[in-house]
Amino acid sequence: MASIKDRLSLNGRNYIVTGGAMGIGYAITHDIAEMGGNVAVLDLRPTPLEPVHDLPKKFGIKTDYFQCDVSDEASLTAAFEHAVESLGTIDGIVTAAGIAIDKPFETQKWEEVDKILQVNGMGSFFAAQLAVKQMKKQKSPGSIVFIASITSHVNLPGYRMAGYNMSKGGIRMVAKALSAELAPAGIRVNSVSPAFIETNQTKTARDHTTQAAGDLMNTAPPLGRIGSAYDVSPAVVYLLSDAAAYTTGSDILVSGGIHTGRGGDYDMCNS
């Protein structure tokens, strides 16, 4: 039996991360690189917001960056093909590209919800499909990790994100469906469901909501704080690695405990 250190290593393996230019996606890119993996990032931004191109010097691996719109089939396919050409082969993919909107249900517009579903749902679905086709072409096993959300489990207090919740519920379910379908090919499929995580997206959400709703990001989780993107990335590294060789169809909640109930509620028990 290999040591746990060796089983967690991603040394010499190749991965694609969608939405890897910032936030949770970048933390995942960084940690894959730190664990020895080569990474191709696919993102809408012309250039990464975070120092993706500094990772090779820091960790002795290879990174590449390809601009694409995951909600556009031609753009996604072209970027994916460039990524495979750059890496040679792939061992896994992480679908971290996503968008959200916080508005009352009755004011959410068709085009707004459609865009959420196109990016979060269709983009993740077809990025994973491209990865599976490549893995089968290589005749090699692999790992797919979908970034779902706590909102696929419970409603977040203070936020009105029905369209986003719908998209992430679909992501969690497609991971379960594919885990059974792809298991005979040696391809594991799992998801990770973060809750409140400090990113540009959550900062924007706080800026456009009430003080009370913004404060919930720190007070609602039983652990009493908002999470970091680097609280999420280790779960992804585990699922990509051989340490998770018998793990498929699972969803890892990285929520600070909010899926168990609101933090602070026990204060009412104090006399």
Automatic annotation (TrEMBL):
Keywords: NADP, Oxidoreductase. It comes from Teratosphaeria nubilosa. It comes from the Eukaryota. Belongs to the short-chain dehydrogenases/reductases (SDR) family. InterPro entries: NAD(P)-bd_dom_sf (IPR036291), SDR_fam (IPR002347). One of its GO terms (molecular function) is oxidoreductase activity, acting on the CH-OH group of donors, NAD or NADP as acceptor. This is NAD(P)-binding protein.
